[in-house]
Design a protein that fits this description.
The structure is a homodimer of 442-residue chains. Chain A has 442 residues and is of the alpha/beta class. The first copy, chain A, has helices at 2-5, 22-31, 77-86, 105-117, 158-167, 186-194, 212-225, 237-247, 254-263, 272-284, 299-312, 321-329, 351-363, 382-395, 412-420, 429-439, and strands spanning 9-13, 38-42, 48-49, 52-55, 67-70, 91-94, 122-123, 129-132, 137-140, 147-155, 171-177, 201-206, 228-232, 267-269, 292-296, 343-344, 369-374, 401-405.
Chain lengths: 442, 442
C-alpha cells in the first residue's frame, strides 16, 4: 500500500479538460504534485490536457506506474483495469460509479477477481480517491488540499471528505474514500495505518462492514496502539435502505455494531460533529485516566457539565484537603465560599481566579484533565484567562485541558488564541465533555 | 407583572460608580432607557452617580416607582425590601445573593412573606435581572441589549443569559433571570407570557421546580397556545448537589421531570445548543404535521439524516407517483436514477437539480417540511442553491425548510444568505433534525 500513498508515478485514465468534469478535477489535483512524481494522463480523444502530453492507453506509457487512477465511464472500467494489470501498476483507484450501488454487482466481482489474480490492490469503485497532504498527493476530486496533520480519515462516503476538508480545522496524515470496497476494505487500511508513523488517530465513517471478524481482529489490535473513532450510518431500517443505494452496503443491526466496536476498543460516536471533535482532541491532547476537574464562572453551565459527565461515566473527584487549602490560601479565591468540584468561580471572577482554580486543580493527583468554562459576564477577562490556561497547559502537559468559552463576539478572540495554541474550544458543554470522554482510558 | 416589564419609573437601590461593580453595571444599563422612563438612583454614600442625582433611601423619592431593583449587600436586603414595600413599588427585583443558595433560607422566607403581605411581586434573589428589548429596558447586569424578537427566555441561571445575549443570534421579547424564585417562579412568568403578544416561543432553563402541580397546570395550558422548550440541569446525583449550591434548588428525579414535561406539552431538550436551535426554529418557522422530505448531494449524510429522523419518530414519506413523474420530467434530474426520499441529487448536482428536487418534494401533500443538505463538492453551486431555497420557501411558506450546508469557507456566504433570509442552517445534520423535530405537531 506504500506505493499507493507515496507514488513515484501516477497515471490518470480518463483525464479530461472539459469544464466541470471529474476527469478535469482529478487532472488538476494530481498535477499539483508534478514536482514530486511522474504524471501520465491517459485519454483516447485528446493529445494534450492542461499542457501535458496525453496517452491513448496506459500500455503506451513507457515508465513504471505506481498508482493508476481510473475515471472512465462505468462500462469500460473493466477493460481499463485489465490494461492496468497488464502494465503491472502498483495499485488502482476506481473513481467511476455504476457498480454494486447501482445493482451491478456482477461486474464489480469480476473486477475484484481480476486485480486479486494479479495481486494488485484496488480502492473503490464509486469513491472520491485518496489524499496524502505530506507528499502533496491529491488523487481525488476534492478541490482543496487539507492541512498536514496526524489524523487518518477513512470514509465510505466521498461527500464527507469534502466537508471535512472544507472545514479546514483538522490536519490529516492520509485521507481515503474507499466507496464500494470491492477489494481493499476499511480493515485493510486500518491495518496499514497501525505502523504508519504519520498517523496518530484513525477516524472512520462507514455504512456497513462486510467482514466483521476481520474488522474486529484488526481493530482490536490497532486500537491498542492508536485510537480509532468511528461513526456508522444506516442504523434505522429506512437508513439501511438508503445506504444500500448509496454504497451498496448491507448495513446490519446497529446494536451488533455497537457491541463489536466496544469489544474492539473503537470509540463509536453519534454525530459527524462528534467524529470531528473527538478526532481533533485525540490528535492533539494526551490520553488520561478517568477523573476530571470542572472550572466555571457560571453555576448552571457547571451543573450541566456534571450531568453530561455522569451520563458518560466520567468521574468528578472531590477536592482533597490539600487542594482546598491551596485555594483558601489564594487571595483571588476569597469570595468563593464553595470550594468543590465543579469549582464555581462565580460571575465576578477575573483571570486571577481562573489562574488559582486551574493550577490548584491540575495539582491534585486524581484530577487527570480539566474542562474550563467561561461565560461572558460583566467583568470577565476572557483573553487573559485564555493566556493563563495556555501557560498552565504548557506547565502540566500530561493533563488534557478542553475549554468551553461560551458566547459570541466577547469570546471570539480568546477562542482564537486558545485554538491557535492547541487548546480545543467547544460551543456547547456537551461537546466539550464528549471530547474529553474520548481521551479517558478505560 | 406589566408594571415590571414596562415600567414608567425605576429605582436602583445600590447604584454605584465604582468600577467593576454590579451596582455600576446596573446603573449604566438602566440609564440607557432614560428617555422612556424616570430613573432614580438610591445609595447612602453618594450624592450623584453618572451625572444623576442620588437619593439616600427610596422613601426620599417623591414620584411613583414601578420597579425597584435591589443590588445592596445581602445583609441589608431585608431592610431595603421593607422600605420598597412602604413606598408601594410595583415590583421588586433582588439581584443580591447570599440567601438560600448560601444556606440562608430563613431570611429568604422572611423577605417572601413581607412582599406577599404587601402583594408586591418579587423576582430573585440571586438573579441577573430582566430585559425587555422592545422598550429598551435592561434592568440586569448583562452588558449588551439583545435584538428585539419573539422569544421569551426564562432562566434560573444568570450566566446563561449572558451567553445567549452575547451570541446575538436570537431576538427576544422578554428575558428573565429569576434566580432563587423566592416569590415569582417560572410558572408565574409562563402564565404571564401566555397572553403577551410580543412572545411567540418560551424558552426555559431550570434546575428544579418547586411547585410541580402548578407548573404542569400552567404549562399544559400555555403550551397549547405557544411552544415551550426547556432544558433541565441537575439530572445526575452529582449534578443535583452542584445545583443545590447554585440556586438552592432541590433538583429532583430527572425521569419524573421528563414525564411531567411530556405530559405538559413542553419540549425538553438535552443541550444548550438544542435549546437555542429549537427556540430559533420555533420563533421563525411554521409548525407542521409529521412527514419530512430530505434532499442531499451527499449520500452518506442523507443516510445519517434518515437515522436521526427514525430515532426521533419523524416520518420520511415515500415519494408518490406524481412526485416521481414530476422529477422524471425535469431535465436536471436525468442522471439521478434513484428518485426516493431521501432524495440524493448526487455529487455533481448543480443548483437546477436543487430547484427541481426542492419544489417537487414541497408539492407532495404529505411532505410537510424539508431538510436540505449541501456538501461542498467539485461543482456545487451553494449560493445559487441558497437563493433557490429562499425563493421556494417564499412560494411555499407553510412548509418549514431547514438547511444543513456543511463545510467551511466554500459554504460561508451561502449560509449567511440563508440565515439573513430566515432559513436556519446547522453545522451538523443532527442539529437540523432536532430543530425540525421541534416543529412537528404531535
Amino acid at each position: 500500500m506504500k506505493r499507493i500513498f507515496n507514488p513515484k508515478s501516477i497515471a490518470l485514465i480518463g483525464a479530461s479538460d472539459e469544464l466541470k468534469t471529474v476527469g478535469l478535477g482529478l487532472a488538476k489535483n494530481i498535477l499539483k504534485g508534478k514536482d514530486l512524481r511522474k504524471i501520465y494522463f491517459v485519454n483516447l480523444r485528446d493529445d494534450e490536457i492542461l499542457g501535458e502530453n496525453c496517452y491513448d492507453t496506459i500500455s503506451d506509457v513507457k515508465g513504471k506506474v505506481d498508482l493508476a487512477v481510473i475515471a472512465v465511464p462505468g462500462p469500460i472500467v473493466k477493460k481499463v483495469v485489465l490494461e492496468c494489470c497488464a502494465k503491472k501498476v502498483g495499485g488502482i483507484i476506481i473513481i467511476s460509479a455504476g457498480f454494486k450501488e447501482a445493482g451491478n454487482e456482477k461486474e464489480e466481482i469480476e473486477i475484484r477477481d481480476i486485480v486479486r489474480k494479479y495481486k494488485i490492490p484496488l480502492i473503490g469503485p464509486n469513491c472520491l480517491g485518496i489524499l496524502n497532504p505530506k507528499v502533496n498527493l491529491n488523487a481525488s476530486f476534492a478541490s482543496i488540499m487539507p492541512k498536514v496533520g496526524n489524523i487518518a480519515f477513512l470514509s465510505q462516503s466521498g461527500a464527507l471528505l469534502d466537508v471535512v476538508i472544507d472545514r479546514n480545522e483538522l490536519g490529516f496524515s492520509k485521507i481515503v474514500s474507499y466507496g464500494n470496497e470491492a477489494d481493499l476494505d476499511e480493515s485493510d487500511f486500518i491495518n496499514y495505518l497501525k505502523t504508519d508513523t504519520e498517523t496518530k488517530v484513525i477516524a472512520l465513517y462507514f455504512e456497513g462492514i462486510k467482514d466483521g471478524r476481520k474488522f474486529m481482529r484488526i481493530a482490536s489490535e490497532v486500537s491498542k496502539v492508536k485510537p480509532i473513532v468511528a461513526i456508522k450510518s444506516g442504523r434505522s431500517n429506512k437508513g439501511k435502505e438508503a445506504a444500500a443505494t448509496h454504497t451498496g452496503s448491507l448495513a446490519g443491526d446497529y446494536s451488533v455494531y455497537q457491541a463489536a466496536m466496544k469489544q474492539s476498543g473503537v470509540i463509536l460516536v453519534d454525530t459527524l460533529e462528534e467524529l470531528f471533535d473527538t478526532a481533533l482532541t485525540l490528535s492533539t491532547l494526551p490520553m488520561c485516566e478517568n477523573g476530571i476537574g470542572i472550572i466555571t464562572n457560571g453555576g448552571g453551565v457547571g451543573v450541566l457539565t456534571v450531568d453530561y459527565c455522569a451520563e458518560m461515566g466520567i468521574e468528578i473527584p472531590d477536592l482533597t484537603k490539600t487542594t482546598i487549602s491551596l485555594l483558601e490560601k489564594n487571595k483571588a479565591m476569597a469570595r468563593v465560599v464553595n470550594k468543590s468540584n465543579p469549582l464555581d468561580l462565580l460571575g465576578d471572577a477575573l483571570s486571577d481566579r481562573y489562574a488559582a482554580g486551574v493550577e490548584s486543580l491540575l495539582k491534585q493527583k486524581d484530577i487527570n484533565g480539566l474542562i474550563v468554562i467561561s461565560t461572558p459576564q460583566l467583568m470577565t477577562e476572557h483573553e487573559k484567562s485564555a493566556k493563563i490556561i495556555v501557560e498552565l497547559r504548557n506547565k502540566y502537559p500530561m493533563k488534557p485541558i478542553v475549554c468551553c468559552f461560551l458566547g459570541g463576539h466577547s469570546v471570539a478572540s480568546a477562542i482564537k488564541y486558545l485554538e491557535a495554541n492547541g487548546v480545543p474550544n467547544y460551543t456547547d458543554v456537551k461537546r466539550a465533555v464528549k471530547s474529553i470522554n474520548g481521551l479517558v482510558k478505560r
